[in-house]
Amino acid sequence: MNSKIKSWRGQRVWVIGASSGIGAETARILQARGARLALSARNAQGLQQLASSQAGTLVLPLDITDHASVIGAHQQILAQWDGIDLVLIVAGTYNKMRADNFDLVVAKQLVEINLNGTLNCLDAVLPTLLKQGHGGIGIVSSVAGFRGLPEALVYGPSKAALINLCEALYLDLHPRGLNVYLINPGFVATPLTAKNDFAMPALISATEAAHKLILGIERGEFHIHFPKRFTNWLRFARLLPYRSYFWLIHKVTGL
Ligand SMILES: NC(=O)c1ccc[n+]([C@@H]2O[C@H](COP(=O)([O-])OP(=O)(O)OC[C@H]3O[C@@H](n4cnc5c(N)ncnc54)[C@H](OP(=O)(O)O)[C@@H]3O)[C@@H](O)[C@H]2O)c1
Questions:
Q1: Quick check: is 181 catalytic?
Q2: 17 CA to middle of ligand 1, Å?
Q3: Cβ(121)–Cβ(89) under 8 Å?
Q4: Which residue is catalytic, options 94, 155, 170, 181?
Q5: What is the pTM assigned to this prediction?
Q6: What is the CA radius of gyration of the chain?
Q7: 136: Cβ below 6 Å to ligand 1?
Q8: 200-221 pLDDT, tens digit each
Q9: In terms of DSSP bridges, do strands 179-185 and 12-16 run parallel, antiparallel, or are they unpaired?
């Protein structure tokens, strides 16, 4: 559904959310394969550490919720590279929430980072990609965006919006020669999930997640999801009528 990538050598990749977890591992692997990296997140020290292993890596700290800082980083990239081959928007946050502990401040922050932050990135990169007529955008959503889940009262909707956004972007951008990747991880061991107090089914390492993410892009897939032994169950559950879906989720989660 997208063009395939045979070699990463020389590919100019901007990873937003590269200071830890899936984004950091993805950047590390792409660096090792010869890609040229621009690394962004708030934690400049984490980015510097990663950049120190490859000369020429751009370190562009930003807060994804701050439109001006995203635009500024994008301008620095254009000044250095004169174009971008792939933008990976990995940045995101998670907070457990149910209806009986609804917190409006936290809820709005989730939407601000996960959804509005992504929109800030699109505002920066879409004109460049459309002008180039080649390159692509990958957005990390989550299987929690497939359907409503307990404890993901607002995280889920913020990720559901990204799934819908990717679908619409594909319809608009594929005919213009651009690649769009919807990336839906299951459970991955990162600082984001370290606070979970339950046994996460089919948990994989950030390194494994990054390998699967990169493989999906190399193969030109639109929907990149992993690990399949977990995500395929949720894809099936997505098709169930509400009565069966709610029964199944209560049964499986006990919530
Ligand atoms: N781990 C999982 O099981 C799992 C499952 C499904 C989806 N995901 C998604 O995968 C993505 C990566 O998560 P992860 O698990 O790798 O967690 P992580 O280690 O916490 O990484 C999150 C990344 O996002 C960056 N970030 C957060 N808020 C930001 C902001 N306001 N501005 C710029 N960067 C920001 C963080 O950097 P700074 O803090 O330095 O800014 C960090 O680099 C997220 O979108 C998450 O929702 C994760």
A1: no
A2: 6
A3: yes
A4: 155
A5: 0.98
A6: 18
A7: no
A8: 999 999 999 999 999 999 999 9
A9: unpaired
